[in-house]
Amino acid sequence: MRWIEWGIAVLFLILTVVFLSGKGAFLIAGYNTASSEEKKRYDRKKLCRVVGAGMAVVTSTIFCTLAMGENMPAWMPNVFLAITLVTAVVLLILCNTVCKVREDASERKESQEDILQEEKSGKTQRKWGIRGSVIFTAVICVFVGVLLVTGDIEISVTREQIDITGSYWSDYTVEAGDILSVSYTEDLDTGKRTGGFGSFKLAEGNFKNSEFGSYKLYAYTGCDSYVVMETADKMVVVNCDTKEKTKELYEKIKTAVYR
């Protein structure tokens, strides 16, 4: 399926070149369905080039993602998402400001009264359109921003099992009797996330590295200490938000396993 991803990237690159050349306005959502009068309010070439600049940013992030492949850090997709959202906000603002054509009322064939009424109506609609778009995008940005810096991992240890609860990913339970060995380490390359959730604070779900292959990880990204549990099924790695708490967790799990 890798060729499909590269195909999409190349398609985005082609669209970027088309827009930067000042063409392809019919591909711009909103503009392509606008009335003739509404289209006259925009500088078509400038609009295309502004959209092209935004497309160039998005296309660059796509190519960077594909080029990094399995070497891409777990937090990198979130950075690319943030860049894309910021680009969308900037595009909305630029398309409704610098891409507008200054109209000369004296050149219109309609009466002055009709012109004023049309401009008033058009400005009102545009203002609400801009406000709505900016508010919607801002809400998305805030939502994503909250996900990137919040959340917790709770680990409950009993004689029978270790229950792992992550804020933004499915919970996981390890039976104490299934654990073959448990160890503590401060030297671990978490590798690549293959399925799960990653943010500036948390890394949860399925990961893959050169040491364990595919394994489960529930960890705080700000702590470099880990508890590694080897089971017959796969490796499970967890930690707490500090080194001290992680050491305490290790002792609890070790006691449950080697009781």
In short:
It is built from six helices and nine strands.
Low-confidence stretches: 105-111
Radius of gyration: 26 Å
In round numbers, the mean pLDDT is 82
Q: Could you say which structural class the secondary elements and strand pairing correspond to? A: alpha+beta
Tell me the number of helical segments per DSSP (H or I, 4 or more residues long). Answer: 6
| Helix/strand order | HHHHHEEEEEEEEEH
Tell me the helix content.
40-55%
The spatial strand order of the largest sheet comes to 4-8-9-7-6-5
- Total domain modules: 2
Separation of termini?
Answer: 48 Å
Description:
The protein is an alpha+beta fold. It folds into 2 domains: 2-149, no CATH class; 153-257, PH-domain like (Roll), CATH 2.30.29. It contains 6 helices and 9 strands; from the N terminus they run H-H-H-H-H-E-E-E-E-E-E-E-E-E-H. The protein has helices at 2-20, 36-39, 44-68, 76-95, 112-149, 243-257, and strands at 153-157, 161-166, 172-175, 179-185, 192-198, 202-209, 213-220, 226-231, 235-238. A 6-stranded mixed beta sheet has the order 4-8-9-7-6-5, covered by helices on one side. Helix 1 runs antiparallel to helix 3. It starts with a helix and ends with a helix. The model is unreliable at 105-111 (pLDDT under 50).
Structural topology:
Blueprint (H helix, E strand, L loop, with lengths): L1 H19 L15 H4 L4 H25 L7 H20 L16 H38 L3 E5 L3 E6 L5 E4 L3 E7 L6 E7 L3 E8 L3 E8 L5 E6 L3 E4 L4 H15 L2
Parallel strand pairs: 7-9
Antiparallel strand pairs: 1-2, 2-3, 4-8, 5-6, 6-7, 8-9
Top keywords for this entry?
six-stranded mixed β-sheet; single chain; membrane; alpha+beta; 259 residues; PH-domain like; three-stranded antiparallel β-sheet; 6 helices
